[in-house]
Amino acid sequence: MPEAIADPFGELLKRLGEAHETRYLETLGAYVNLSGVPDSYADFQERRNATQSAVRTGEDILYQPVMFGWRDVDGEQDFIMGIPDLLVREGDGYLVRDCKLARHVSDRTHPEIARQLELYGWLLEQEYGEEPLRLEVLLGDGEILELPYDGGRKALAELDRIKALSRISEAPYEPVGWSKCAGCPFKLSCWDRADQRQDVAVLFGVDQKVARQLHADGNGSYADMLQGSNIEGLMQLNGVGETKARKILRHAEARYTGKVLQIGRFPHLLDRPYVMFDIEGVPEQPEEWEKAYLWGLQVFGGSQEGWYRGAVAPFRDDGDWRCWEGFLDEARDIFEEHGDIPFVHYASYEKRMINRYVERYGDPAGVAGRVLDNLLDLYTLVPKTVILPDPSYSLKLVEKRAGYQRSQAEYGGEWSIAKYIAAVETGDATAYEEAIGEVLIYNREDLEATWAVFQWMARDFSQPLG
Q1: Angle at 457 between CA 452 and CA 459, to 5 degrees
Q2: Segments in 197-260 forming alpha helices (H)
Q3: Cα-flanking dihedrals φ and ψ of residue 433, to 5°?
Q4: Out of 3.40.640.10, 3.30.70.120, 3.20.20.70, 3.30.420.10, which CATH number does the structure's domain 274-460 have?
Q5: Boundaries of every domain in the chain
Q6: Three-state SS string across 64-126, please?
C-alpha cells in the first residue's frame, strides 16, 4: 500500500531531528564516523566490519555503528540488524545512546523508542558477548534518560508479533481514530476502508476500547448497531455509561443519515459584537520553549465589525516578548472600544498560552487577566448543541458544515508551524516576511471560520428544542 506524500510538518520534524543530532555530535569531540548510505547488504557488511574493528581497538565514540544478530525461532533463523546513533566506551564496555526529539520515553509515551534501544542492547550482546553498560536516550530538551535493559526480551517479543502479523492472510482489526491516525501516511487508505464498512470507530465519542468490544461482539458497523443495539446493551460494555451510550447511538444515527441533529440550545445570540481569537504557535523544540508567534484578533457582529489585528513576533531576539506586548496592546484597544466583549476561541490552546505568557512576562496592566475572564470556548458548546455526522468536532470539519470555504490550497496548524520554523531556520528576513504573510492569511481565515461556526450555531440552533 503506497504511503501518502510527505507533509511539510513531517519533513520539518525530520530536519529538526537531524539538527538535534548534529548539534549533539559537535559537543562530543572526536568520534569514529561509521555512517553511510548503503546500496546493498555488502555495504552494511562493510560497515559492520568497520564497527568491529573500532570496538577491538577500543575507540571511545562510534557514530552509526552497524551490528548483526541471528537467532533460531521454531526452526527458522532470523537475521536482525541495528544501527544505533552512538556506542560510547566507558572502561572496558560500551553504552548505547540514541538521539530523539521526544521529551518523555516510557512504555506509555514512546514504547517504540524503548524497544529500539533494547534491541540495540541485545545486538551489542550478541556481537561482543557483553551486555551494554547502559541504554540511554538523548531527549529533545538535552536531558539524557537511562532505560532499563531486560536482555532484549520485550524487543524480541515485539519482533515476533510483527513477524506473525506479516504472515496472516487478512489484516487484523485495528480501529481508526481521528487523533491516532492524524500523522499517519496511510490515513486516507485506512479511513476509506473504515468508511466503506461503516466502522463504529469513525463515530465521534467511540474510543478504541469501545470499538474493539463492539467489533468483537459483532456490532462493528454503525448501521448494524442502529438495527440491533439499545441503550442497555451498550451500557454492558466496559467504560460506557448511560450518557455515553445515548451519544454513541445518536452519532450513529447522524453518521448513517448524514444529518445534523440538534440536542441542545446554543446559549448566545447575534445581538452584540464578539472578538474571534486564534493563536499560531510552535511546540517546544530542542533548546527552545513553546512560543506563540501570531496572536490573531478580529471583532465581528454588532453594528460595526472591526479589522483584522495580528500581533506578529518580529524577526529579532526579543520578538517573543514584543509579540506578547503587541497582543496586549490590541486587546486593550478592543476593551476600550467595546467594554467586556467575549473573546471567542476554538478549543483550549488560547487559554493555556495566555496563562503561559503571563507566567513568562507578566501582566502589569491586567489586560491578559481581563481576556481570560472574557474567554468563550466555542469548541465546548458545539457538541452540547448538535450531533454532527463527522468523526471530529475540529474547526476544519465544523466550518464546512457552516458553509465556510478557505482561499488557500494548503493550510492547517501543522502547516503553519512548518512554514514559520522553516523561515526562522533560514535566518533570512525576506523569507520570514513571506512565510508570515501566508500564515497571516491562514490565521485571518481561522477567525472568519470561527465566526462562521458561531453564526451558524446562533442562527440555526438558538431556539429551544421541541
Answers
A1: 90
A2: 208-216, 222-228, 231-234, 242-257
A3: -65, -40
A4: 3.30.420.10
A5: 8-165, 187-259, 274-460
A6: CCCEEEEEEECCEEEEEEECCCEEEEECCEEEEEEECCCCCCCCCCCHHHHHHHHHHHHHHHH
Residue 55 — very low, low, confident or very high, per pLDDT cuts 50/70/90? very high
What pLDDT is attached to residue 321? Answer: 94
pLDDT in tens, 237-255: 888 999 999 999 999 999 9
- Please give the Cα distance from 216 to 235 (Å, whole number): 15
What is the residue whose three cell numbers read 469513525?
A: 202
> Three-class SS string for 253-275?
HHHHHCCCEECCCCCCCCCCCEE
Look up residue 290 and give its three cell numbers: 513553546
Contact present, 455 and 270 (Cβ < 8 Å):
yes
396/462 Cα distance (integer angstroms): 22
> Bridge-partner residues for 135, per DSSP?
96, 147
Which residues in 394-429 are b (16+ Cβ under 10 Å) and which e?
bbeebbebbebebeeeebbbbbbbbbbbbbbeeeee
Averaged pLDDT of the chain: 90
pTM: 0.78
Q: Tell me, what's the pLDDT at 412?
A: 60
Q: State mean pLDDT over 52-68.
A: 96
Which position has the grid cell 525461532?
73
Q: Which amino acid is at 111?
A: P
Tell me the C-alpha distance between 204 and 66, whole Å.
45
Residue that has been written with the C-alpha cell 453564526 in this structure: 455
Whether residue 446 has pLDDT greater than 70: yes
**Residue 76 zone, left/alpha/beta (φ > 0; ψ -120 to 50; rest):** beta
CB distance 450 to 44 below 8 Å: no
Is there a contact between 388 and 254 (Cβ–Cβ < 8 Å)?
yes
Q: Could you report the per-residue pLDDT of 413-437, keeping only the tens digit for each?
A: 666 667 676 666 666 677 777 777 8
C-alpha cell at 228: 440491533
Q: Which three cell numbers stand for residue 155?
A: 524487543
- Tell which CATH classification among 1.10.10.410, 1.10.150.20, 3.90.209.20, 2.60.120.10 matches the domain 187-259: 1.10.150.20
Q: What is the dihedral of CA 165, 168, 172, 178, to 10 degrees?
A: 60
